[in-house]
Amino acid sequence: MGSRINTNIGALNALKSLNDIGKRLETAQLRLATGKRINSAADDAAGYSIAKKFNARSQGLGQALANIGSAKNLVAVTEGHLSNIVDILTQMKTKATQAADDSLATEERNAISKELKELGNQIDFETKQATWNNRNLIAGYDTTGASSVAFTFQIGAGSSTTDDTITFDLLNTNNVSFGGTVGQNGYTAASLSVSVTSTRDVTSGASAQALMANIDTAIANVSKALSYVGSVVNRLTYQETSLTVARTNTESARSRIEDADMAYEQLEATKLQILQQTASAMLAQANAGPQTILSLFKG
Q1: Which of 102, 149, 163, 251 has the most CB atoms less than 10 A away?
Q2: pLDDT in tens, 50-65
Q3: What contacts 74, CB < 8 A, 6 or more positions away?
Q4: Distance of alpha carbon 85 from alpha carbon 82, whole angstroms
């Protein structure tokens, strides 16, 4: 074989080795550039499929966490307006207690009555202002007039209506004890039975005391609503913690399959670069080998 020049087997073997090393070096450099061990399905068909499933779940969990953040903001708006209503009711209780004292004259009671009416109007205003994306949170209707105050939050990455969603419904009697009219009135002064009218006033000590009793009931009802709001926030917070742990574990599982070991890949790339140089040198020597046959033709 050493005296045949038409086919340089040594050079062909060296070329094949050089090409193989080049492909392996290209793979190592790609992994170093992307940080991924699997860059295409051909790298690891089974691993690629599993990693994509893990990635889809991780992305879903991430969006569920974002949903929880939005849900908390919505509930916080509700809590803020309900807290304001409790503060207004507390002020109304103070004024009604003042009006119940027979040391006051009619003119003074009339002044208190006007102030109570304005406070009742502010309760209605708080209820009207409590909106989220054109839906009212505590009045029981949206801006289009549709009767609904229930919100369903997607708090999981699955499609289960029991495990991956939570419903926030402030006017559902199963959730809160509401003393007024449940429906489109919601938490207004009229539905809470604290609005000052011709049949509900403070023109006498007895009527003022009757209003005081209504205000006490209203404060209790709104406080129960705030308690329900707090329980929803607590559940969202626990779910947020649970999803954070689940997402971290999912990312960890995906990383073990898909991500590259950077230290190993750098070591592999360095080794292959040296082999590439030695293979190139050996190819050059193999190409030069047949030239020794020329000595046979020298006279």
Answers
A1: 149
A2: 999 999 999 999 999 9
A3: 132, 137, 151, 168
A4: 5
**Nearest CA-CA partner of 290 in 35, 65, 1, 5:** 5
Q: How far apart are CA 120 and CA 188, in angstroms?
A: 8
Q: What does the CA dihedral 236, 241, 242, 243 come to, rounded to 10 degrees?
A: 90
For residue 282, what is the enclosing H or E element? helix 262-288
Q: Are 137 and 78 in contact (CB under 8 A)?
A: yes
Q: Cα(25)–Cα(202) distance, rounded to whole angstroms? A: 90
Within 13 Å of residue 289, how many CA atoms lie on the same side as its CB?
20
Rounded distance, CA 155 to CA 128, Å?
Answer: 28
The pair of three-digit structure tokens given for residue 213, joined into one six-digit string:
């009793």
119, 92 in Cβ contact below 8 A? yes
Q: Which residues contact 146 (CB under 8 A, 6 or more apart)?
A: none
What pLDDT score does 182 carry?
44
Mean per-residue pLDDT for 274-289?
A: 86
Three-state SS letters, 162-188: CCCEEEEECCCCCCCCCCCCCCCCCCC
The answer to whether the beta carbons of residues 54 and 45 sit under 8 Å apart is no
Contact 55, 38 (CB under 8 A): no
Report whether pLDDT(93) > 90: yes
Question: 200 in helix, strand or coil?
Answer: coil
